[in-house]
Each structure stands twice: as C-alpha cells, then as structure tokens.
Amino acid sequence: MEGALLALAGKVTGDGEAPCRGRRRQDAIPFDAAHRYMATLDLGPEGRAAIHVKGAPEAVLALCADQRRDDGGTQPLDTAFWSERVETLASEGQRVIAIALRQAPPEQSTLTDDDLVGRLTLIGLVGLIDPPRAEAIDAVADCHAAGIRVKMITGDHAATACAIAAAIGLKNPTRVLTGADLEVMDDVALADAVWETDIFARTSPGHKLRLVTALQSRGLTVAMTGDGVNDAPALKRADAGIAMGQKGSEAAKEAAELVLADDNFASIAAAVREGRTVYDNIKKVISWTLPTNAGEAMTIVVALFAGMALPITAVQILWINLVTAITLGLALAFEPSEPGTMRRPPRPRNEPLLTARLVWHIVLVSTLFLAGVFGMFFYAIDRGYPVELARTIAMNTLVVLEIFQLFFIRNIYGTSLTWAAIRATPIVWLCVGSVVAAQFAVTYLPPLQAVFGTQPVPLFDGLLIVGNGVLFFALIETEKQMRLAFRKG
C-alpha cells in the first residue's frame, strides 16, 4: 500500500520515483486501530513544514475543517459528498484511504493529536484494488464443503468487506457488523450475533479477542489468523492461532501455534486436508492392527480353551507379526487423501479413536478371521493332511486375510472396489509383494520349513486360500456399504 501511494504521488507531482526527495520527517503519529490514521510532520527543502495525514476516511474526515479546490484554494468540507464517494468506492471492493494536510510552522518539531483536530484540509480519496487470490476463492469453497465456517474480521470499510466477501464466496455477504456495533453488545448478544454473521468490519484487535471468545462459548473450535502485535491475545486465545510468516510481527508468531510461511489462506485449507489425511491414516493403522492381532490371539485362545491342537504354532504367529506389522501396517502410513476428504463435516473434538464403530469392526473381523483359519485347518485335517501341512495352510490363510483386510481398510469412507483402490500406491504393492515373497519362502524353502515347521501347500489348496480371502473381503465390504447407505439414509 505504501509503495502504491508513493507511486501515485510521483505521478501527481511529476517527481517520478522520488516524490519525497528533500523532505525530512520531524515527527510522526503511527497508525493505530484506536484512531485509524497515521500523521507525519515533514520539513521540506525550502524550510516549509507540513503535516500529512492518511487513514480511514471517517477518521480523517472528522479531523478536517475544509477541502482543497481544483485551483489550489480551499472551501468548506462537504462531508455528505465525500461519504457518498467512500461508499461508492468501497462497494466496488476497493480499500479507501483519505489524505489530508496542513501547513505547520517551520520551527515545529513535535506532533500531537491537537495539531490535527479540526485543522486539516482534505486532499481527496484513494481507492486501492486488492483482489483476492484465485486459490483463496477455491480454498473458501473447500472449507465450506468440509463444514468449516469462514469468517472475515477486517479493519476495512463495511462496504469493502461485503464486496470482498461476495467475491471470495463467504456466506451471508450482505450482513455485516462493525466495531461500533460490537461495542454496544454484551457477551450474550455477541454470542448470538457471531453465529449468524460472517463479516466484521472496522474492528480492532480487542474485538477479535471478543469474537474468538464468543465463538468458543458456543462450543466451536476456532482458528484465527493475525499478523499484528495487538493480535497476540486473540491468537493465544484461539484453539489454533495462525500467524503470518512473511508480514507477521514477532509477537504474533510467538503467540500463535502455527506460522503460515506463505501468508496464503489456501495453505490453511491444504493443511486441513493434510491433517484429516494423517488422522485418517492413524485410524486405518489402528483399524488394521487391532482386528488382525485380535484374530491371531483368538485363534490361539479358542484352540487352548477347546483343548485341541494349535492351528498355528507360536513361532508361526511370531513370524506373521514380524512380517506383516513391518510391511502391511507401515504401508497405511503413506496413504493419500481419500476422495471426499474435504466434503466431510469435522469430527467432534472429544471423539475417541476407539469408537463403537471400530469396536464392532474388531469383533466382526476377528470372528471372520477365526472362522477362516479354523475352517481351512479343519478342511486340511479332514483331507488327511499331516498337522504340519494343516498348520501351514492355516498360517497362509491368516496372512492372506490380513492382506485383504489391508485393501479393505485403505478406503474407510467409500467403496474399496474401484480402479484407483485396486491400483493402490507403489508402497502398498511393494509391501504386499514383500509379504507374499516371504510367505512363499517360508512355505517352500527347505531351510525355512525346518525352522517354522511348514510343508509345501498344493496348488489347489493355495487357490482355496486366496478364495477364502476373496470371500472375507466381499463380506466386510458388503457390511461397509450397508453401513454407509444406512448413514446416508
């Protein structure tokens, strides 16, 4: 903004790239959200001093006594005219700044508010176009689809805020509350208003803190962005304070939990997508590990309580855990985002990882594992196979079921029977290939057969093992589709 104003001054004065050459600043009143203007006392090369002011139009107009005429003279300030011009520019989405000045005595070296009030001459208005980034518009749409309400808190004019809000796709773009409106609301009224309003204009950092607190009072999880020193309390109060990494102050960065390296709102939406993916993958690892381990444990426990020969020996169970936990479980950590990740509502903040749905899945999969392993073991015994071969068949059945459980659990929110799901990621096929190769080695290589007590599995029985896995996959996929259809209904 400062650069744009300097460029404009260079064009108006004809001084080009150095419109302030020869001027020396004597004193200044920095911009503050409380008074919404900045003033400087400048000494020119001819020894003449002048006070220059820029800021929010309503703040600067309140300081002016008159306005500059085209011929260089002055005339009484036409407040109604300038207010109308401000509304027109702001409704076009432009940030409007008023500029004023007054001459000062050459010997003046300090600047106070008393030097401004009612003593300035309005020069005019400047409208700055700051169009939203295209990726920000898409990011807002992604957030809305994901059940995240996006609200704008700005120091700009209300009409400017409404125009920008409509351009980026915020909800309720015609409803706006200003800082003056917030001042007259108590906390109860604010908690109701903040639920229905998405645009807050002419606000101060103190208003941001009240808005964050009001949203949290309704049980919402609040993330807030900020860059100024005065934003630190609101950033600290928010559940997720996000500071600007490029233009943010050090105080804001220290108060925030997150720092946005590129100052781009689209990065926030991308972070939400990545966070949901990580959480989903954690759930997938748990949803794969607990049922498979429960199935292995139940196989041993049931055999012990039934007083029968173990369908899988202890060393074979250790082998399965060693091979599958390192490979199949690890593969889930590299899963990409599922389709529709940003079209799901946020999960409740107090939702546990071990939900009732996961407990049911553990029971279902464990039961099917138990049925598959014992079914194949009894099938082998019934055919007169030696117990070593029966155990080898049961062990391979358990591994195949775990592989199909992996392909099932990769898509917990949609169907697993898609080309993208079957194609999977390279890491999945690498891990599955490693497990298959290891199982072939244990089953058919004599040195490993002696260690693990295995025997070669006939081709027909091997196909039967794979068929068992296909049947298991069909059953749990059918149950998932019925559950998803019931939830949508």
What does this structure look like?
This protein is of the alpha/beta class and 489 residues long. The chain folds into three domains: 2-129, Calcium-transporting ATPase, cytoplasmic domain N, CATH 3.40.1110.10; 134-267, Rossmann fold, CATH 3.40.50.1000; 276-488, Calcium-transporting ATPase, transmembrane domain (Up-down Bundle), CATH 1.20.1110. Helix content is 54%, strand content 14%. The protein contains 18 helices and 13 strands. The protein has helices at residues 2-13, 57-61, 79-91, 134-145, 158-168, 179-183, 187-196, 205-217, 232-237, 250-255, 265-306, 314-331, 356-382, 387-409, 419-423, 426-444, 446-452, 459-488, and strands at residues 24-29, 37-43, 49-55, 64-68, 74-76, 94-104, 120-129, 152-153, 176-178, 199-201, 223-226, 240-244, 258-260. The chain has a seven-stranded mixed sheet. A three-stranded parallel sheet has the order 8-10-9. β2 and β3 (49-55) form a beta hairpin. The chain starts with a helix and ends with a helix.
**SS field, number of helical segments:** 18
Q: Over the alpha carbons, how many angstroms does the gyration radius reach?
A: 35 Å
The side-by-side strand order for the widest beta sheet comes to: 1-2-3-6-7-4-5
Could you estimate the helical fraction of the residues in percent?
A: 40-55%
Low-pLDDT windows of residues: none
In short:
The protein is of the alpha/beta class. It has helices at residues 2-13, 57-61, 79-91, 134-145, 158-168, 179-183, 187-196, 205-217, 232-237, 250-255, 265-306, 314-331, 356-382, 387-409, 419-423, 426-444, 446-452, 459-488, and strands at 24-29, 37-43, 49-55, 64-68, 74-76, 94-104, 120-129, 152-153, 176-178, 199-201, 223-226, 240-244, 258-260. A hairpin with a 5-residue loop joins strand 2 (37-43) and strand 3 (49-55).
